[in-house]
Structures are given as C-alpha cells and as structure tokens.
Amino acid sequence: MFAWLGVALVVDAIDGPIARRLDVVRVQPNWSGEVLDLVVDFVTYVFVPAYAITASGLLLPVAAPLLGGSIDFLHELGIWSQCQDKAAPLQTMRLVDDTGRLIRAPEVRFSCQEIGLDAFGYNIENSALIAALEQRAAELSRLTRFDDEAETVSPGDTMVTVRTGNGETRSARLLIGADGRQSLCREAAGITVRRRELNQAALTFNISHSRSHCGISTEFHTQHGPCVFVPLHGERCSVVWVGLPKEAERLSLLSDDELSEAAEKQSHSILGRVRVEGGRHLFPLAIERPAQFARHRVALVGEAAHVVPPIGAQGLNMGLRDAGDIAVIVREALASGEDPGAPEILSRYGWARRGDIMTRTLAIDWANRSLLNDFLPLQSLRAAGLHLIGAVGPIRRLAMREGLALSSRSSLKGYRLNQRATP
C-alpha cells in the first residue's frame, strides 16, 4: 500500500499517524530530453521519515500487481529495468465461484493473448519495487529528501507551507499529498471524505508451492469475499484472503503449518503442496471517496485520493495514473506560465481523475456487494453477467481492456507528446 509521484517514493500509512509523507512541488522548470527528468523537474522536496517503510509494513510480504500502462510508465521512467527480473508475468486471470450457493457463476478465464498482449501485467513484491524507486530517486540531483515528518501543512492564498517535525519550513505554490488514508494534506485543504467501513478484512502473505502457477492468477469467490493467488517470481504466489474480520483475524493467528493447510484447502490444491512464508499483514477494508481531489493548493494522489477493497488490483494502478495526470497538468501549466496551484489548474486535475476513480470505485463496490449478497435474484444476475462475459468474445475483450484501463487516456503518452511540442 503505497502511493508514488514521478520517481519520488511516498509511503502511505496503513493505519494511524505513522507519519505524514508529502511531496512539495515548487516552480523550477528545467526541461531536459528524458521523460524521467521531466516528471521530476517540478518535484523539489520529498519528506519520507527514515522509519516509514518498516513502520508501515511495506517490507512485509505485500505484493503489487502492476497492470497495463503502469508497466509502460515505470519503463519510460527508467525504473522497470531495475526490478523486472524480480516480477512474475500475469498471463491468465481465472475467476472461480467458490460460494457453494444454489446459483453459482461459471468459471471465467481471461487470456492476455486474446487482446494481443504478452501479459496483463506483472506482480512484484513491494520491497523490490521500493528498492528500485529509492535507487532511482537517489540519482536525481534536483530532488531533496527530508527524513522527517511533515508536522503541519498551511495552505495560503499564494503559497502552501510545510513545517517538519524538526521545525524546518518549506513553501511552494503546489503541494502533492500522497500521505495515505489519514491524510494531513487532505485535512489541511479542507477536503471532506466519505468513508464506509466494510465488514471485511484482508490477510496478505506469500506462499511457495510444488506445482507451477503457469502465470495464472486465480481468484476464488467465497461467500465473504475473494481469495486470490497471484503469481510471484519462481514457484511462489502472493495471497490476498478477504473474509469476515473475526475469521481473517483467526487465520492470521494460525501457525505456519496450519495456515499452509488452510491456504492449500482454499486453493483446492491447484498449486500442489503449499508452504506459507514468514510474515503476514492483516488490515480492515473500507471505501473512501473525497469530495474533491484538489483544493487550496493541495492535490491528492494515491490512498489520500481513493481507498478501495483489493479487488481487481486497481488501487495502486489508479495511484500511478494519479501521478501521471498531475505530472502532465503541472508541466503544461509551468510551460504556459500559469500558477500550478491556481484553482483552474487544480480543477483540471480533478476532472482528469474523477471519471477513472469514480467508475472503478463503483465497479469494485458493486462486484463486492454482489458477491456478499444472498438475495437470489441478485445472485442470478451476477451469474448471468459472468456467463455473458465468459461466453461472448467482444464483451470479454472489452472487460479485459477496461480492467487494464487501455481505453483511458494515457498520462505518459500525453506527457511525451507534450514534451515534443515544447521547444
């Protein structure tokens, strides 16, 4: 669970005031030929407490499925080559109705080859991705890192000021807030958020197994939520097991042998013998939607801007698109001599992100509700919908493209086109 802007890594708090991590954007244009330099030219400061990564659990066995344009984004920024050999391609997505109900949906398989791709995306452990981001950030001479908390954020008419825990202050015309669910930036900007707690929790861990996963990500739909086995590099998978909070907590307290047995049973032994690796992470599920994505010289990205259940691997990928869109919009504003924190610029960002975030949040919410609801007509509708997707090629291909956001505007593509247009 983390958000990211340009190459500056900004770690999200999972729960509680672990730290407030912010990127401060200051007008300092110095356009060069590299896409990476263009993205970070206006990112002047990044605040990341030294203990943030460990404290927030990011070195626990949590993995990040990167889909569609997210890989292209990291590749163009010069980061993907540093971690590609640690990632596993996702070539087939398999949905299995494991609810045991009277009316069940048929199994559905999505193949990347059907839409002309080598892979839908790649699954990589957060620790490997973070290391690559950190390494690239260290190479950027214009990026100043403060290993400190942002204690206060004070938006003004012409500038926004951040004061650190050590008493240092920095001001800029725009602040990018990627400080997670308990966002200090969002609060300082006066942006309200609608939060709905779900009666679900997710347990994440990694496993090794005796049979090859063959690049197939398998999602079992149970009565209380999905349990997905996502390929990792080698004969390993990352597991996200969603269930009722008490059941998820019970699973988290099992011994390694007991959890291995439970995971193998849940997977119906499709991966052979399963062995749980060390480390687990348990977190409650919720849906959060802010009233605005930008206000008072503050723009929100990542979990400060949207929180969704771990269904369809959308959260991180939406966060990367947040980063790409704000990069495009700020660069265009600076190139035309506009104030990057002006209301009209923030409005552009809000409009750019609203459609993507709202439609995916609603789709994820509906998919989750339909799985949990025992109302027979709704179960029939869900089963019919999945049957239609699985049986009708054009609808199936449309679903795959929408899941990868291939029909959405490519932030990076727009960025590169604008790069060529700028003298």
Question: Which helices and strands occur, and which strands form pairs?
Answer:
Elements lengths: L1 E4 L2 E4 L10 E4 L9 H6 L2 E5 L4 H4 L7 E5 L1 H8 L3 H4 L4 E3 L1 E6 L10 E4 L9 E5 H13 L5 E3 L3 E6 L4 E5 L4 E4 L1 E4 L6 H5 L4 E17 L6 E7 L2 E8 L3 E8 L1 H8 L3 H11 L7 E3 L4 E10 L3 E2 L2 E3 L14 H21 L7 H30 L3 H16 L1 H11 L7 H11 L2
Parallel strand pairs: 4-10, 7-16, 14-22
Antiparallel strand pairs: 1-2, 3-4, 3-14, 5-9, 6-9, 7-8, 11-12, 12-13, 15-18, 15-19, 15-20, 16-17, 17-18, 21-22
Features:
alpha+beta; FAD/NAD(P)-binding domain; eight-stranded mixed β-sheet; six-stranded mixed β-sheet; 28% strand; globular; disordered N terminus; disordered C terminus
Descriptive report:
Helix 9 runs antiparallel to helix 10 and helix 11 packs across helix 12. The longest helix has 30 residues. With 423 residues, the protein is α+β, with helices and mostly antiparallel strands. The chain has one domain: FAD/NAD(P)-binding domain. The chain starts with a strand and ends with a helix. The N terminus and C terminus are likely disordered.
What can be said about this structure in brief?
This protein has 423 residues and is of the alpha+beta class.
